[in-house]
Amino acid sequence: MASVASTRPATGESFDLARPWRLSSEVSLRDEPFGALAYHHGNRRLVFVKSTGLVDVLVRLGEYATADDALDELVAPAERARYERALATLAAGGLLGVG
Amino acid sequence: MSAESGLRDRLEGGLNAPICLTWELTYACNLACTHCLSSSGRRDPEELTTTEATALVDELAAMRVFYLNVGGGEPMIRRDFFDIVEHAVERRVGVKFSTNGTRLDAAAARRLAAMDYLDVQISIDGADAATSDAVRGAGSYAAARRAMDHLAAAGVADFKVSVVVTRESVEQLDALESLAHGYGAQLRLARLRPSGRGVAVWDALRPSAAQNRRLHAWLVERPHVLTGDSFFHLSALGAPLEGLNLCGAGRVVCLIDPVGDVYACPFVIHDRFRAGNVRGGGFGPVWRESALFAELRAPHSPGACASCASYDPCRGGCLAAKFFTGLEASDPDPECVLGHGERKLATTRVELRPTPSIDHSRAPARVGSGPLR
Q: In A, which residues are within 8 Å of B88 by CB distance?
């Protein structure tokens, strides 16, 4: 099962893990039994974040110099690929920004 | 995309706050559309005050309700309309508001244009005055088009043109899409429901089975056309439509009416589906603790649809459409694309259908002589 589901399909874009990604200031997160709902107030995109582990990564992403560093510390190696795909999907939807 | 079944099961169990909360600000309306979901017309003397309304916004902001669908009645009739809406946007609660456009002049358009997190939906019910005015009243189409012109002139190009799909308007989908695109706007289609005054016109105005099949095909080709998850019962025809494809009533959706009553969804303004009132304890306790919402969030048996291979895409359809046509929640949707609803409807008696518990229609009132509470 993918970790994120959006009400609108995201466009494909390359996602550079070496950059300092963080949750966009336009995004509100709300805890839910399945993880969280994320809403981008600017582009009105609603995303289902379907694991509490991913919610934790999103909340703490901004504490790290790069997305790579965040995943190194917060995610087990076996799960890393799944988290990278989820972050790429969120970035393509504008929910993550750089800097 | 449509939600896969695991996520959908979680959504059907309820959320910490609604995804889609409709708030009808007033029962007052200067139009008298024949299909009005809320039987609006006259203001109710018990409507929430400005102070109560802004306190409600504060509570919704604290619950992280991301946005409100504001409607009515005609919301712009409220003198404090801008106070409430601007307060919501300042608290970062987005507003999508529906209007008939009659009060949306050049000055109002400029004020709306200055607000972030705000989307405007102008309602028409046909691509020409004759078709639309037959439902919404003489002059309503021209007024709506003037409002669209004002929005465009103020730089709000990305408004929504909101249309209820009837057996007349469904023949004008391409023209309606062109009309919206002519402004740079988006088309938004909604299902005609047998709710409010719509109870009386549903049989005559609803699309035929053949029209619903064409509508489904038209929507599948146009994922950019907004539907607010209105047509998920048509997903049984094959390709699922955009959206969550489930009945959100009391689970991810609810309605707060002008007097603060909370209903399971905007289409079931009836005592049977009233969960509580925001006066007193606020909205949160109603959303979290009402017995009605607990019932709606409990696992449901597919009922009469258990043996249907198309149950998964359509989930038995719309609760409100069933209720107001005299069907049980466990029955098929009255517009089931496989015809199961029509067969069931044939066994019910029209005169035994539930009638709306409240009616604010202006004289001649259809139910009684005043707002029945």
A: none
CB contact under 8 A, B242 and A7: yes
Nearest to A30 among B17, B67, B242 (CB): B17
What are the backbone angles phi and psi of residue B100, rounded to the nearest 5°?
A: -85, -10
Q: What is the pTM of this model?
A: 0.92
Average pLDDT over all residues of chain B:
93
pLDDT at B371 over 80: no
Peptide bond into B364 cis (omega under 30): yes
Q: Which residues contact B298 (CB under 8 A, 6 or more apart)?
A: none
- Give the nearest chain B residue to A31 (CA atoms): B16
Note the pLDDT tens digit of each residue in B184-235: 999 999 999 999 999 999 999 999 999 999 999 999 999 999 998 899 899 8
Question: Do B16 and A30 lie within an 8 Å CB cutoff?
Answer: yes
Confidence (pLDDT) at A1 = 39
Report the distance separating Cα B240 and Cα B1, nearest Å.
Answer: 9
For A9, the closest chain B residue by CA position comes to B1
> What is the identity of the amino acid at B240?
P
Per the CB < 8 A criterion, the answer to whether A44 and B94 are in contact is yes
Task: Return the percentage of chain B with pLDDT > 90, whole number.
Answer: 79
Residue of B nearest to A25 (CA): B92
Pairing of the two strands A96-98 and A21-23: antiparallel
